[in-house]
Amino acid sequence: MTSPLALEARALTKSFRTRGSDSVRAVDGVDLAVRQGEVVAVLGPNGAGKTTTLDMVLGLTRPDSGSVRLFGVAPDEAVAAGRIAAVLQSGGLLGDFTVGETVEIIAATHRDPAPVDEVMRRAGIAELGGRLVSKCSGGEQQRLKFALALLPDPDLIVLDEPTAGMDVESRRAFWSAMREDAGAGRTVLFATHYLEEADAFADRIVMIAGGRVVADGSTAAIRAQASGRTVSAVVDPASVGWIRDTAPGVREVTVRGDRVEIATDDSDATARFLFAHSDAHDVEIVAHDLEDAFVALTSSATAEKETLR
Ligand SMILES: Nc1ncnc2c1ncn2[C@@H]1O[C@H](COP(=O)(O)OP(=O)(O)OP(=O)(O)O)[C@@H](O)[C@H]1O
């Protein structure tokens, strides 16, 4: 059974005026649906439109067109009801308070906050209560923001590049706190440009580039959609041109030493052809990795946008 939607965004667009009379179309027709309990990564390179999309989802920026519903209501209504919380890139913490004081103060602004000790433990900052915020590392401050976001016990938590600028150790600590929390059934939507974070943590990846969704699915599905496979084999160099023109599914052929590498949409058919019609041997079939998919999908979308300008 599929769970109901936590988020439904339809045909979102947003342009910003830049210096002079130019405008930048930051988001260009984004559809995004997230089911309750899903952990979804919005993955894309710098400037792809991730922050603008999340800001519209949270009701912080009004779309030029399109609509957003969170749990069936408008974003501001869902936020006011304490169903949504966010960890944003911007938004400061006060350095002169301790971590514990910060959580206490913000808890006091909520009608029915989760217990302070519990959110600090869940965010992995239970040991940092007495530390001044100004003495916390970037990663510790992000975990403090995460604790604050947990106070209203939200159904959906939105995080915009929560681990930007953290070292590997801090990122690991952050995600381990997040993962434990998401396991409890909370819906999580996060933006990142770290492919490995999206791959390791999300159930599903929505890849955006040039303000558009260029892929949406499980990591495995995105890999398959973007890149197909490569069939490589040792062949007689004289037959490379003929293979390129004749074999089924071929997208691109590259020769490396005595091997030919064939990027193909149908690796089975390509391999069968090689066995049946050539002297190919030492045949290998390799699925492209997510990194290849990311580069292929985002670069073609960005290039398309450039040509439209
Ligand atoms: N307030 C603004 N005024 C003008 N242009 C803006 C504004 N906000 C965003 N943009 C532009 O819109 C595009 C998308 O920006 P956005 O911040 O949404 O991307 P992003 O994917 O979050 O990037 P990053 O990973 O660098 O944070 C960029 O070209 C950006 O320069």
From TrEMBL:
Residues in ABC transporter domain copies: 7-235
Predominant subcellular localization, coarse grouping: membrane
UniProt keyword annotation of Transmembrane present: no
InterPro entries documented for this protein: AAA+_ATPase, ABC_transporter-like_ATP-bd, ABC_transporter-like_CS, ABC_transporter_ATP-binding, P-loop_NTPase
Membrane association type: Peripheral membrane protein
Keywords associated with the record: Antibiotic resistance, ATP-binding, Nucleotide-binding, Transport
Pfam families, sorted: ABC_tran (PF00005)
Any one GO MF annotation of this record: ATP binding
Compartments where located: Cell membrane
Name of the protein in question: ABC-2 type transport system ATP-binding protein
Protein source organism: Williamsia serinedens
Highest classification ranks of the organism: Bacteria, Bacillati, Actinomycetota, Actinomycetes, Mycobacteriales
